[in-house]
From TrEMBL:
Chain residues forming the annotated DNA-binding region: 147-244
Protein's name in the database: Response regulator
SUPFAM superfamilies reported for this sequence: C-terminal effector domain of the bipartite response regulators, CheY-like
Keyword Glycoprotein: no
Classification via Pfam families: Response_reg, Trans_reg_C
Amino acid sequence: MSEPPVILIVEDEVAIRELVAFVCETDGYKTIRVGSIAEARAALAKVRPDLILLDLMLPDMSGLEWLKGLPEEPDAAGVPVIMLTARGDEMDRVAGLDAGADDYIVKPFLPRELTARIRAVLRRHSAPRTEAPVESTGESADADEAERIVRCGPLMMNEARFEATVEGKPLKLSAKEFKLLYLFASKPGRVFSRENLLAAVWQSAFVDERTVDVHMLRLRKALAGTAAENLIETVRGVGYRCRAEN
């Protein structure tokens, strides 16, 4: 019989920490409970959890700050994270998801919703990943599939190196903005609805569609003033697309 998934709960308020642990354990998970980032690091050095539930406001470091550097920590790299916090503003949600959170839950939470989201994240991370081939964008497509390079007009993107340039000048993009732009550039002319983009980039049914609009606004700001500033266009009532090159 396989061992139940282990969840690391990083929450400084004891009452909430115990409540979250009770909800998780009632659903069959094992829990490790800590109240700070220092304690979380110590726990990770002993046991690698299957998922981390992370509060945003902690006594020794911001949960958001720790989340951003988590991929560089060997004991935690690759472990999915769900933010569980009282801060529910749209910009807080966007910041958390941009920083690498797999989902974002606002307190107070419904126990069934919490366990449903945990199951959804664990399913996504346990499912085998298949790499989709990069589609050609015509004459502008690079043939080197190993590098996964896509060209669309003045834009060039290298997925493996996480690089995006316009006429050789680098763009400053967040992880989600890069994924959005790469998706558009890979399929010029195709219209993507907000639902399509949520499924492809966020892979979560719990993220609001307004999050897409916020990221699209940021993406357009990143492209503003470059030769690619008009590359992405809105298709009224449908979604967004990358202009196809003639």
